[in-house]
Amino acid sequence: GFIYNVRTQQSTPLLNDMPVALYDCCVVAKNNYVYVIGGSSRSGIVNTVYRLCFETFEWTTMAPMGIARCVFAAALKDEYIYVFGGINGGRLSSTERYCIYNNTWEDLGDMPKGPRCYHCAISTTGNEIYIVGGCGTRFVDVFDTGPSLTWKTQTYLCDMPEERDYAAAVVVKEKYLVVIGGFDEDDAATA
Fold first, then answer.
1. Least crowded by CB within 10 Å, which of 25, 37, 116, 158?
2. What pLDDT is recorded for position 183?
3. Which CATH class is domain 12-180?
4. Is 17 exposed, middle or buried (0-12, 13-18, 19+ CB in 10 A)?
5. pTM (two decimals)
6. Omega of the bond prior to 115 within 30 degrees of 0, cis?
């Protein structure tokens, strides 16, 4: 891996390689740490979590997820990392949450409109995480990370007009959910 400094526009290789080469994983950053979660290696789909310290550039193996998964979605909310769906032999509906401070995983049950893969998860400024699209779906779901840890049905948030997988999404001005790119139901690339 490498680190790119956006201010100096210089890239430098990481001092230490990640313990295992991965793809189809998710990455989340919190404070001075980068968490690389799940994905696939040459030996198959993994449940591992590796943490890179940005002070020492050393890797640490953290507690593994309950279920190995790749092509899933992850989002950071406060001191928790949430993972949604993915693939492990078949498509997954499961949701898990990782506590950064306790290094523990917790099963949060299944997504109501799962299974999902090749989708995205977007944290909002409140307690919500939006789960957007995925293979064969145009659904937009809302997970409430507050004390109830429940899926919400929002009257103000409707499904996308078409299926999107491999898309990117972001919330802008706490008002707009912008979904860009990906593939539609005909596997045509979209703008």
1. 158
2. 92
3. mainly beta
4. exposed
5. 0.94
6. yes
